[in-house]
Amino acid sequence: MTLSLPPSLLATLPGHYYTDPSIFRVEQERIFESMWFAVARCADIATPGKFETVSVGRESILVVRGRDSQLRAFLNVCRHRGAKLCVEAAGETKRSLQCPYHAWTYGLDGKLIAAPNLTKMPDIDRVEYGLIPVHLREWLGYAWVCLADSPPSFEDAVIGAARDRLGDTEMINHWEVDTLDVGRRIVYDVKANWKLIIENFMECYHCATIHPELTEVLPEFADGYAAQYYVGHGAAFAEEAQGFTVDGSEGFDKIGGVGAEEDRKYYAITVNPQVFINLVPDHVIFHRMFPMSADRTVVVCDWLYTKEVVASGKDVSRSVELFHRVNQQDFDACERCQPAMSSRAYARGGVLVPSEHHIAAFHEWLTAKLA
Questions:
Q1: Model-level pTM?
Q2: Residue 72 above 60 pLDDT?
Q3: Do 9 and 359 form a contact (C-beta atoms < 8 A)?
Q4: I need a surface site. Which of 40, 46, 277, 303 has the fewest CB within 10 A?
Q5: Percent helix, strand, coil in the chain (nearest 5)?
Q6: 332 neighbors 216 (Cβ within 8 angstroms)
Q7: Which helix (H) or strand (E) holds 303?
Q8: How does pLDDT run across 223-246, given as a tens digit for each residue?
Q9: H or E element, residue 288
């Protein structure tokens, strides 16, 4: 039975969307394995032979820097008998990647270059039996992969998300994100469904309740409307706040391309299905979510600063601490919600108040993907 709601309220997804393993399997297939997915910071794989492995949906992906300095992605599976080629989360090899099972060996370009008795099998096509490639694009200094045979337009699906949020295709380039360095990285293991995390990030109805440090710096958030509620809107810093820091103290010089109209403001972008981008004048906070199961999500959060700030060893702890607390507060809230998703009280879902109505667009996007 569908509830009759007053105009002020919109329905959420039913509770089983956040708990049902069968729904999560469909999400893996139709969302995580079909869309562009940010997997690694390119600078972490900077030199030939460096690699990272990462889970995308049900697949293990190998991202490696070739001898030609090109970044490539492959399914992390040996073509011989299906052993996982690289078991480490990250590593470095000089010239090739060798399967530890039967020693099939691949070049950094994925081509099969050696195997026991391979010279006695001249009919084997070394490209055809090389590693299976995965589509890869670089943007904002991150490697984005897509497992689909025919990926969606990167310009529409990824860059377009920033354009639609900021109202300007070029605005995000003012932060020169691809030139920044990681000043701090924190990995969070969140016992909650990935959709709860996205919904939380998109709204600020909760900000006055659980984010005292954030609302001190961004006082308009105490009114319940998130910056993402409005196209092109940046939340203004409090008059007494000198920077985007846990105590409102001074931060660092503006990133080179940030203009006067973007100074002392905070912008937030969601790139479905798993990236949050936070822009403030002197740094960028970049979240990558890795949904592991219906009730567990790993979130990797990078605080990015100019090369000068990182190389000089300047103290970034006050700006890191602000959003680290926000993350902890948000993830605690999501973990508080997760058990209730299986309650009979939430069988038909909950409701969205007006300041959260834009979350309904995310639900419509999701259900269309799963349909």
A1: 0.96
A2: yes
A3: no
A4: 46
A5: 35, 25, 40
A6: no
A7: strand 296-305
A8: 998 877 788 899 999 999 999 999
A9: strand 283-293
Question: How far is C-alpha 266 from the chain's CA centre?
Answer: 18
Residue 1 scores a pLDDT above 50: no
- What is the rounded CA–CA span in Å between residue 139 and residue 158? 9
Q: What is the mean pLDDT of residues 175-188?
A: 98
Confidence of residue 2 (pLDDT cuts 50, 70, 90): low
Beta bridge partners of 288: 275, 300
DSSP type of residue 237 = P
pLDDT digits (tens, 9 = 90+) for 43-67: 999 999 999 999 999 999 999 999 9
Tokens found for residue 69: 């300095």
Concatenated DSSP letters of 39-101:
EEEGGGG-STTEEEEEEETTEEEEEEE-TTS-EEEEESB-TTT--BS--SSEEE-SSEEE-TT
Q: Kindly write down the DSSP assignment for every residue of 250-282, as one continuous string.
A: ---PPPTT--GGGTTEEEEEEETTTEEEEEETT
Structure token digits, residue 361: 């667009």
pLDDT tens for each residue of 97-123: 999 999 999 999 999 999 998 888 888
Q: Which two tokens stand for residue 179?
A: 């030139």
Q: Which helix (H) or strand (E) holds 330?
A: helix 317-337
